Amino acid sequence: MKTKLLLIALTTLCTGPLFAAEAPKVGAAAPGFSLTDSNGKKHSLGEFKGKYVVLEWFNPGCPFVQKHYKSENMQQLQREFTGKDVVWLTIDSSAPGKEGNLTPEEANKQIADWKIKSTALLLDADGQVGHEYGATNTPHMFVIDPDGKLIYSGAIDNKPTADPDDVKGATNYVKVALDEAMAGKPVTTPTSRAYGCSIKYGH
Q: Domain 36-198 classified CATH 3.40.50.300?
């Protein structure tokens, strides 16, 4: 019985947060922010108005994140959509001393090792931007339209496992949302439940 309770507790910690801020609603304006990337350059959401923007919450130590990077699913998505002038911002909100927190040097090594193709890897060590978005898991995905409105919030796909084999055949909500919106169609699945490891916030 004790072993079963321990497994339930560990599963809860891995797959969902103990608490979450109120997330912005789809259809509302995406919260503005300014963060520094792994090269020391500042990026603000406002500078990308007029473009689609993807926000991807990231922790390289999380097996759910590893699923999408080691299968190269995430890099393929990043490559496809940055090639269509979409801005893709990978965000690390892990606090100092916690799993996934990266120094700029460590972040650049991660980019090189995993051949990450996002526009920038942004460092949010105090968790402010993560809390503003109500980001709960890694990966937690958001898509913002050229008017600055949130059009998708949730999981990357409909297979909430850490198994790379499940990437094949999954419905990728982010790809579908971008393809539909960029074709002038309504997003058929604007929200879903994010899955993955809980974000390692400091507070």
A: no
